[in-house]
Each structure stands twice: as structure tokens, then as C-alpha cells.
Amino acid sequence: MRQPTRGCVSLVMMMRHPNLTARALGLAAVFAASGCYSGMGDIGPDGAGQEGGAPDTGEGESDDADDDDDGGGDDGVGAQCGETAVARRAPIRRMTDVQYRNTIADLFDGLIDPSAAFPETLHSTPYTSFPEANLVSQLGAENIMAAAEEAAAQAVENLEAVVPCASGADQSSCADTFIESLARRAFRRAVRDDERALLRGVFDGATAETDFPDAIGRVIATTLQMPQFLYLVEEGEPTDDPDVVRLSSSEVASRLSYLFWDTMPDTELFDAADADALQSVAEIEMQARRLLADPRALPVIARFSRQWLGVSDLSPATKDAATFPQFDETLAAAMEEEFDRFVREAYRSGQGSLQQLLVGESTVVNAPLAALYGVDSGSTGPDDWRAVTLDPTRRKGVLTLPAVMAANAGSASTSSIFRGKMLRTQALCQDLPPPPADLEIPDFPDSMSEREKSAVLLDNASCSGCHVLMNPLGLAFEHYDAIGAWRDADANGEIIDDSGEIVDGRGGLDATFRGGPAFADLVAESEASASCMTLQWMRYTYGRRETPDDQCVADALTERLTESGDDLQELLVAFTQTEGFRFRRVEAQQ
């Protein structure tokens, strides 16, 4: 791994002072990570690391990598991408708040409850996997420290369960055994001598002034603040190409577990890593399929899908209570649950598909949702979920679900801008140009309809360049009000005009259409659907935007998705078969 940039706090300092308290040591570790590994200034507009900034990991192919014996042959996706494949980068990133909670629970076998103090993952880009979503401020470092100390306090209270050897006579040997076990699993790889010495130094320093349980607590608090735990660090192993490293089996195990489960490797992955079995693409594929078949993969699929389409925080506070008195906590939760169930069904192995995701007509509803849809499902309450087939002239696919429509709308009214932007950037994978520096936002009377407001924006030379790409798409979804319910007339009593247009669409997809279902059909029938879904998963998986160097593998993955009959699980498995999943480009020393 590249050396820290000048000015960063280094772990070397901590190893020279092993008797520092867990609090001071932990804070130094967190700031070392936040200063050296990430920072808003270190991430460029395409998500790639910038010169002089944070070190990057990456993924990509190397022509020299083929010469190394990977135990399974180089038959991964992307090997056919030209005579000289390009190794690519992805910025190193701290685990998200969800990954932290899952990892704490698994690290201590459910004996410790993860702290709510850990910083929430915030993101302006769609995906929480982007490093700028997980920056560490001074307050964030203090919260990480508080979360670590809460975990340590719980461990001390339940010491014999967390540290089985604690009741024995030889507490020094017990400390060594515990440190080895904890650090091995927390760092997700073999423990190094300097790390072992650092943690033993924390223990020895604590026992000079307190008892064994408290000393163990300080070891835990320190471990949970170290960059090796908080960050998904990938140093790699040398190949014939000095600019490319092969990920170790332990690093591949972490890539698999955090991609599909949002947590640390389980026992089987640890065993495979210890046996160095994850240098084989066949073994990686087997593990990927195993992880995807496990129910723990379902929340990840739902979480990706929510971030993809902007479905978040559907609390009643986001909507005007006077306009939508029916939008309470029960209905909001039902809309989110329906969304999760719908997308999970589309990812079912051998049964789901991209087509089902985009144009599926079946969903599940409880009583509150049945009322919103205006269907008689037979459901008797909020916990009674029933399968229904919706009217395909009104609803078709994930884009017309109430959760998506409500999340991409205003508090009291719809928004052709919000919805059009989501459709353009997320369903068609097209970026919008930045607004002009001299932008002047027009004033709109309250009585103006969305179509009338859009006409004003499209007639404004400083606005039309962006809005022509958004508003004509969003206007086709005007039948769905701000909580996603169907309506025939707008707030002014005017009959809805749901005509829409795709202008300058991806892959030549230019068309006029009427209504959300027609848009879903157009996207599903186009070649753009598979390539866009591939790009969205690439962004989520690698924590950055794509670059021209990625196009070859993106094309190969899209082809694999199409050949599989649009099986979305096959796309996810195919990601793990790329050389980019097993190799990364090394940044130059600075």
C-alpha cells in the first residue's frame, strides 16, 4: 500500500508508544485514516483519486497478470477485452454505517449491540459506497471513539462470554489468545507482528493501572478505531507488472462479503482465505453464488435498489399533512416494504430478471397499500401481505411503484424535475450538464400546473439545456401524486396530460410516449436497460464513477447479462469473475 502522505498521523507513532490510552490511541488511528485515506478534495468529479490526495485501490486487468498462476485459469469476464487490458482504480473507503453495525454484531457473535454513535453515512452521490459518503470529521472521529468505547463497555460487562479464557489463572496467555483472535477477525486477515505488539502494549499499559477486564476493554476499544478495522484496505501481492497487484485471498474474501452481505467474512470465507483458495475464479464464483443464495444478501440488494432510485426517508414529515392526511408511518413503512419485496423478487436466482424489475405487473400489498392502489386484495391489516396483479395501463415495473414516485416528488405536489432527473440519470444512465453560472430561477404562481411550469423553463434559454432532458420525462408520470397514488386530475382539477418524450436518449433511445408504463416498456425493450444496470452496479461495487477505461469490462458484463436472459444474479456473479475483482492498479509513491 502506498505510504501515507506527509503530515498524516502514522501508526508508526502509536507503535512507538504502546502505553498510550485506548482513547488517545484510537483517536490518533481514526485521524490517521481520515487524513490519509479520504477527503473531499481527494476525490475528483469522476470518483478517481487525485494526485497528491488519498491513496486509491482499484480494479482492473493486467496483461502480465495472466502469467501468474491463479489456481483456476484466467477465464474471468474481461479477459477478452483486447490484447492489453487496463488495470483500473477505485478509491479506498471506510465501511458504511450499515457495514459497521453488521460487522460489530458478527465480530462478537451477537454478544454486543452496535452503538448508534457511529457516524451516519451521508451521500450526495447515489451510493453510500462512494468514499466521500464516509468522510471522518473531528466530530465523526469522536463518535467512532464513543462507539468503540460502548462496545468495549458491553464486553467488560459480559467478559466471560466475549473472552472465554478470562476465568482462567493465566491472564497473560489469555490476553495473547484474545488479541490474536480479535485482531484476526477484525482486520480480516492474518495479524502482523507490529499490530500484535501494539495491542499487547495497550493491554500491558492498562494492567499497570487497572484490572484485567478493563485492560481487555481498552484492547477492544483500540482495535475498533484502527484503520485496519474501519477501512477496507487492499494492499495486494506483487505480479510481474510493477503497477498491478493481485488481491490476496483475504482481500478477495472481504470484497465478496462486503459486496453481498455488507459485513465481514464468515467462517467459510475465512477458511477459504486461509487455504489461499480465493485465487481461483472457480472458487470465487462458488463463494459468490453461496453468498447470494443466503438471505443476508437480500438487504444489500434492496439497499442498492433504494439508493439507485432515491428511495429514502419516506416518513410522514416529508409530506404535507394537510394535503395527504392518510400518509402516516404505517403507509410509509408499507411503501418501503413493498419496494424491497418487489426488487428482491426480481433478483431471485433463475426466476427474477431485469425485465421483471422494469415491467413486472405483480406486486404484494397489505391493507394500507391496497387502499392506496384502490384494489381489493383481501388483506386484513398491515401485516397481511397478499400478491396482486396491477392494471398494466397504470402500473408497470419498479419505476411506477408508490415508493419511487413519493421519494421523487415534493411535499405537497409532484415534480417533473425531480422525477425527470431520476429517470434520466438512473434509468437511462445519462449525466446532466451543470446549470449555467448566470442561472435565474423563474417565479411560478401557485396555480400553475407542472406542465405550465415546464413550458416556462423550456422557453428560458438559460434553463432549457438541462430541463429539456428532465421535464418531458417527468411529466409523463403526472398521474402519480406526491405520495405515489394514481390520480386522473391535478390539484387544479385539470385532466392529466401524461405525454412524454425522451430527447437525446442513451443508445439512440429517442421517442414520444404516454405514461409511466409506456416509458418502462421503452427502457426495457432497449439495449440501454442492460448497459445502464451494469453501470449502476459498477458504481456501487467499486465506489466510483466509471471512466473510459472501464468501457470494455462494462460491455463484457452487459453481454453476460443479456446472454443469461437478463438474470440479475448472473450479473452480480459475473462481477466477481472480472480481473478487476482480483487485481488493482498501484498508485505511485509520493
List the helices and strands and how they pair.
Elements: H1 11-16, H2 22-37, E1 56-57, E2 90-91, H3 97-107, H4 138-157, H5 159-162, H6 171-187, H7 193-207, H8 212-223, H9 227-230, E3 237-238, E4 244-246, H10 249-260, H11 267-274, H12 281-293, H13 298-309, H14 329-346, H15 354-359, E5 362-365, H16 367-373, E6 386-389, H17 402-407, H18 416-427, H19 450-459, H20 461-474, E7 499-502, E8 511-514, H21 516-525, H22 528-542, H23 551-563, H24 568-576, E9 583-585
Antiparallel strand pairs: 1-2, 3-4, 4-9, 5-6, 7-8
Helix pairs in contact: 2-4, 2-8, 4-8, 6-7, 6-8, 7-8, 10-11, 10-12, 12-24, 13-14, 18-20, 19-20, 22-23, 23-24
Give a structural overview.
- The chain is mostly helical.
- Among the domains are: 11-37 and 93-230, no CATH class; 311-335 and 368-525, no CATH class.
- 46% of the residues lie in helices and 5% in strands.
- The chain is built from 24 helices and 9 strands.
- The chain has helices spanning 11-16, 22-37, 97-107, 138-157, 159-162, 171-187, 193-207, 212-223, 227-230, 249-260, 267-274, 281-293, 298-309, 329-346, 354-359, 367-373, 402-407, 416-427, 450-459, 461-474, 516-525, 528-542, 551-563, 568-576, and strands at residues 56-57, 90-91, 237-238, 244-246, 362-365, 386-389, 499-502, 511-514, 583-585.
- A 3-stranded antiparallel β-sheet has the order 3-4-9, with no helix packed on it.
- Helix 2 packs across helix 4, helix 12 (281-293) runs antiparallel to helix 24 and helix 22 packs across helix 23.
- The protein is globular.
- Residues 1-20, 34-75 and 82-87 have low confidence and may be disordered.
